[in-house]
């Protein structure tokens, strides 16, 4: 990279997985003046509430499925590479096997050859495992990310590469664009107000954490409840309420989640409840990864990932850096 491009001043807004890895990829690509700005930091981010499972799914009515496939594949390769190089404890990335039962017949997903050990249970195995009421049950090994540990690992990596951080709330893109060459907007649902993007909608998710060390497999059901083991807890979920801005914990939701999950796994009734968490997923008809040329400078937007931010984050970061390279080279 030419020195004049490497010295360009770039500001990234948002310290979740999307903002952090955009900032890291910029530094790894040769840019040396990158500042990450956020009003909040881990563990007080939407990313901290995410289950963190790598699981591509439909993310919006207008989304290009080829982009989801490309971004998801890049993120899978990235997460697996980090897990193998640095280990589970340092990165928070685990390989865990589990079951995905559907009450209606369904097709194999496009990513079945990307994950490990994907197979469909026959009737004998479904009966043996208690899934006889389901038409289609798959089993595979995927990546599950403890997002709090992953954010800690990622922020340390960003700083080790020379990245700078700044804690403040951004109220306008014009404000943050002052005295810099490029802004990357990774504010998630915050772009509803920051950009006036009212195609964004909150998708409220609540989950429950319990202490249970005997669970070895995860389970995702098609009526949206799930059970995921982590190193220090088991996650029970969940809710998926579109248009709900409420971030308060609902006892009714907690009770409903526990009732559904313990019906499937009765032993969970005797677990210690560690607490509940609520997060607002940034829903949008399609993920927005694009350049906007404004009167106050170029903005690259990267938000609207719905409930699959972890699944898409690294692929989107690669896309963002490509856009930055092209725009700054053209301006140069």
UniProtKB/TrEMBL annotation:
One of its GO terms (cellular component) is peroxisomal matrix. GO terms for molecular function: D-amino-acid oxidase activity; FAD binding. FAD binds at residues 46-47, 187, 306-311. It is found in: Peroxisome matrix. Its cofactor is FAD. InterPro entries: D-amino_acid_oxidase_CS, DAO, FAD-dep_OxRdtase. GO terms for biological process: D-amino acid catabolic process. Belongs to the DAMOX/DASOX family. This is D-amino-acid oxidase-like isoform X1. It comes from Hirondellea gigas.
